[in-house]
Amino acid sequence: MRASIKWAGGASFEARSETGHTVIMDGPPDMGGENRGARPMEMLLVGLGGCSAFDVVHILQRGRHSVTDCQVEVTAERAEEPPKVFTRIHMHYRVEGDNLPDAAVKRAVSLSAEKYCSASIMLGKTAEITHDYEVVATVTGR
């Protein structure tokens, strides 16, 4: 896997993934940023949430469960002194589906956290990561 990051002036950088996707990252205004993109540390949280959400949906679908939506809210705390690593991360999953068993969602979240989500396992080396979830029944007529 590869990525390239090119300075775009000020505190802005353009990142390009190996698959050709582009993301703009920018720093805060007090460091020369113009708020043109997410901060690099925000990108880590976005990557964590995306990695885990992908796992949860995939695990549930492989179990032949009807998933109609999956959202993950990720909140984090950072160390006060450099390096300002994440020290605590909480992930709240909101999984929607037709007759979706609570136990299946719990299992999918656990498997993602403990076995499949590389980002979670990597960030878990410096941060305490906690999880909770809610199961929501699909609204008919959607």
UniProtKB/TrEMBL annotation:
Q: Which PANTHER family match?
A: PROTEIN YHFA
Name of protein:
Redox protein
Instruction: Identify the domain of life.
Output: Bacteria
Signal peptide range in chain numbering: none
**What Gene3D superfamilies would the database entry show?**
2.20.25.10, 3.30.300.20
Q: Please give the SUPFAM superfamilies that the UniProt record associates with this protein.
A: OsmC-like
